[in-house]
Amino acid sequence: MAVQNDLTKGNLITTMLMFALPYVGANFLQALYGAADLIIVGKYCDSSVISAVATGSQLLQTLIFFITGLTVSATVLIGKAFGAKEYDNIIKIINTMTICFIAAAIFLSTIIIAFDNQLLNLLQTPVEAFQSTKDYVFVCALGLVFIFAYNAISAVLRGLGNSIMPMYFVAVSCFMNIVLDIYLVGRLQMGAQGAAVATVISQAASVIAGLVYLRKGKFVFKFKFTGIKFDIETAKELFKIGLPLSLQDTLIPLSFLFLFSLANSMGVAASAAYGSVIRLNAFMMLPAGSFAMALTALTAQNLGAGNMQRAVKALKLSILFAFSFGVVFFIWQQAAPYSAIAIFSTDGNVLHEGARYLRSFSFDYLIVPFVFCINGFLFGCGRTAFAAANAIFSAFAVRIPLAFVLCILIPNATLFHLGIAPPCASIVTTTTGLTYLIWLSKHNKLTAS
Description:
There is one protein chain. The chain contains 18 helices and no strands. The protein is mainly alpha-helical and 449 residues long. Helix 1 packs antiparallel against helix 8, helix 2 runs parallel beside helix 8 (191-216) and helix 12 (308-335) packs antiparallel against helix 15 (364-380).
């Protein structure tokens, strides 16, 4: 694939697969990156440390999600500018996004470090895992700037139709993380803190690789480390598209943090099992998420080029591809859930609790392809406000209340009951999203964001 790639031309199936598959690869490596911590910690440490890494990483991921909305908005704006061949706008978008990300990284790092005890108490972090979780969170908070920098670089490249290089960057990070995990957690016995140090160092390596590529690559713009300027109008566009996504990407994980707190209240084994399933789901959900992310960039470029019909066809293809993966994952988790949890832990109690959750939750694998792809299409159209409102509504009007009813009001509730809530929420999101798309199409408003 070239440094930049025009997604408005060529055979749609070939273009879609060639652009989406590197997304799958990158997200797989990103999931492996996170899972490596739990796998290696599970091999060398007890359940309390597994719970610490699972809880700490979930907290940090929730806070990081606040900024991911801006990365999507940057991809959309860059994609539209590239599709319309407005290359000067690309420079303004990159400069403005860079300043926003630096400010966000500093702010969130400060918040996490200052209020770590309160945040961990809100999650009902088990007493046995509290100090280890605190150590993990502190180290990772210091490295937030590298997470944001990688996301910014990836947003730029994907908006330009380049999905391969972000995969290579995360591959560098993943490899380093595994090696450092084995050394710091396995050999030096640093526990959760060692896993955090490995994470930060490996993230920094991927950022360095990305910056070198941006500096040396032959783009339609000239990337420079100096002379970065802030453009207020571009910032308004970024926030108009990105803030609804930031709100969604913050609140949706918060709804799952509520589920995590319910799992934590069931004991260390349930906590470790739920944390392991979260890592597993990072793999199970990545095909749907990857095709949705690819669809966003493809839709943005075609919208800029005035070719919405091609984007609609891409939406249908994305759902078909993602659903095919979902069927396979659903069958696996229904037939052999223990085999999946065993990747992260050999503890009998953790295996049992994790299997309980997967028996009910795995129905979500059949529904999220529709949720993710519809949202990916709407994001590419710039209609982030509706997509975000829809997702937030289903999370707080369905997922959380249903989880509360099932787990709090039912005597001796288990993770099986907790796993019922997410697929029910996804059904609501899909139904509302499809209705909205049909309405937009009927009134010829797909291109009017």
